[in-house]
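A.,

Following up on our hallway conversation. Structure tokens first:
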């Protein structure tokens, strides 16, 4: 039998409408939030960042030099500083990464013209002018209002070199190194919030065994100190030991076992772990632009492993340290995609899409749920490298979707975690199962309740009904981050493709109601 086109098309359209309707109709999620059940503090340091001397992360991305035509303050880009100030970045880890274990700090102090050019053999073997050194990093910290997290060189350095670096930075007494700092224009000692003792010492940091690293850790922790009198009783610097970058727990076991029997002469405060989202494993191969639903699903599935990764390490730490004295420090995390075509593969350049923003919110929510142990985290990295906040090209700058997630989460810094009882639902497709929604709640110091909802479903909105007890809320307002496609990105030509926009929400009789768009991150504030 033959159908005439004119008769067939309306029937097909009707059928398609009937079939499509249930799939695009909103789903429902019920959240139950009891504010009286508040939990751990969501440490602001969970929103830290990582700025390694790698590719155009520091040079060009942050540092352009005082003679640049790009507007700058003492060589540091004004546009980047302004953007970062809005994120209230709590701490920045520098100078690496793998670079840290080959960095010799003395080459980066004093008059710029006298600093030697060296090779950055960790990242592409490019010439490093050393113009961005310790005093420039500290200036950058002061300009964006953040705390320094320095990684000392264990791999190719010595305890003496690291100890002298800390003395240069933090000594108040008139030692030769403090005087040298003053001669370089900085009479007052700097504050250093965190000190990493090596980086990935099981690999690029010297390929050490756990036992060998523990013996190094004891020596560095004993002899490398912060001398700033202002950090002696309050705001003490935290010493961070190297932990694993793999799910196995033998390394954590060895370090924590040693810690359990430490004496007065050495100690540390945090154990670093690194976990990147690499959906296809190594070498990385997922595209950061022009991908579809398959890559979206696979990447989000892969990133959710962070929860299990942390649980495994925490189980070992809990055995040796049930009081949770030692923080778990996730000082490298984020998605690692294939390098953008046409870029230097050693510079780790990738675009940043709505998918990556959703991924960032999922990880931040995981960290918040582990807030009793996870107290520091640093996304990799800050500018132009991996899952960056900011991309630059000469004088141009664009803020990424991940930047906006960090901005929307600022109210969660130091807020108190409030547990949410909810059924996340499921999304099944091609053998991959994802939760449909994720959510986080916290109460800030002023008493406001903040709720974040991530809708992972790229096709369907979700109607949220949240019952709030333990707090009478009067009004709600918020914003949402979404875009036309999961691979939408902000570019220099179109910088506003993925930016937050206001969302409407109502509160009545202790219930919050709103609809969250497909593939979105939404943050709502509720006024008591
Ligand atoms: O962030 C890039 C690199 O990833 C870091 O230098 C290293 O620590 C990790 O392997």
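Then the amino acids I'd put at each of the 528 positions:
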């Amino acid at each position: 039998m033959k159908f005439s086109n004119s008769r067939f098309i309306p029937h097909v359209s009707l059928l398609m409408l009937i079939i499509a309707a249930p799939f695009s109709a909103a789903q429902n999620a019920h959240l139950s939030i009891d504010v009286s059940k508040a939990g751990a503090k969501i440490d602001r340091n969970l929103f830290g960042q990582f700025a390694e001397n790698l590719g155009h992360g520091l040079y060009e991305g942050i540092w352009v030099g005082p003679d640049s035509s790009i507007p700058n303050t003492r060589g540091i880009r004004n546009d980047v500083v302004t953007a970062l100030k809005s994120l209230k970045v709590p701490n920045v880890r520098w100078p690496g990464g793998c670079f840290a274990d080959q960095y010799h700090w003395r080459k980066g102090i004093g008059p710029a013209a006298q600093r030697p050019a060296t090779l950055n053999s960790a990242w592409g073997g490019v010439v490093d002018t050393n113009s961005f050194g310790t005093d420039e990093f500290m200036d950058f910290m002061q300009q964006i209002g953040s705390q320094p997290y320095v990684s000392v060189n264990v791999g190719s350095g010595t305890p003496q070199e690291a100890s002298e670096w800390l003395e240069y930075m933090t000594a108040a007494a008139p030692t030769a190194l403090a005087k040298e700092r003053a001669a370089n224009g900085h009479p007052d000692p700097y504050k250093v919030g965190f000190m990493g003792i090596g980086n990935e010492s099981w690999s690029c940091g010297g390929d050490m065994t756990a036992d060998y690293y523990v013996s190094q850790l004891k020596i560095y922790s004993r002899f490398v100190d912060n001398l700033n009198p202002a950090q002696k009783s309050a705001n003490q610097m935290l010493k961070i030991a190297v932990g694993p970058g793999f799910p196995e727990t033998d390394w954590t076991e060895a370090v924590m076992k040693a810690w359990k029997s430490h004496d007065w002469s050495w100690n540390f405060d945090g154990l670093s772990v690194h976990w990147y989202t690499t959906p296809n494993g190594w070498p990385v191969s997922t595209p950061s632009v022009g991908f579809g639903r398959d890559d979206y699903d696979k990447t989000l599935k892969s990133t959710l492993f962070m929860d299990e990764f942390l649980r495994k390490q925490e189980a070992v730490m809990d055995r040796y340290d049930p009081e949770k004295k030692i923080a778990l420090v996730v000082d490298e995390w984020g998605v690692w995609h294939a390098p953008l075509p046409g870029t230097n593969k050693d510079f780790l350049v990738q675009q940043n899409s709505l998918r990556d923003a959703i991924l960032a919110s999922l990880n931040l929510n995981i960290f918040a749920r582990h807030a009793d142990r996870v107290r520091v985290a640093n996304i990799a990295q800050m500018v132009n490298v991996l899952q960056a906040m900011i991309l630059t090209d000469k004088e141009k700058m664009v803020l990424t979707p991940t930047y906006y997630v960090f901005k929307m989460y600022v109210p969660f810094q130091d807020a108190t975690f409030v547990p949410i009882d909810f059924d996340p639902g499921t999304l099944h497709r091609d053998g991959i199962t994802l939760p449909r929604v994720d959510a986080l709640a916290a109460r800030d110091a002023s008493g406001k309740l903040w709720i974040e909802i991530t809708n992972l479903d790229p096709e369907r909105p979700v109607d949220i009904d949240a019952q709030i007890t333990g707090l009478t809320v009067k009004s709600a307002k918020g914003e949402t981050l979404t875009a036309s496609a999961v691979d939408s990105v902000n570019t220099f030509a179109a910088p506003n493709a993925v930016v937050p926009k206001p969302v409407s929400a109502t509160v009545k009789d202790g219930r919050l109601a709103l609809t969250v768009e497909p593939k979105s991150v939404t943050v709502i504030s509720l006024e008591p």
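Residues 52, 96-98, 199-200, 274, 332, 380-381, 386 surround alpha-L-arabinofuranose (CB under 6 Å). Curious whether your intuition agrees with the design.

B.
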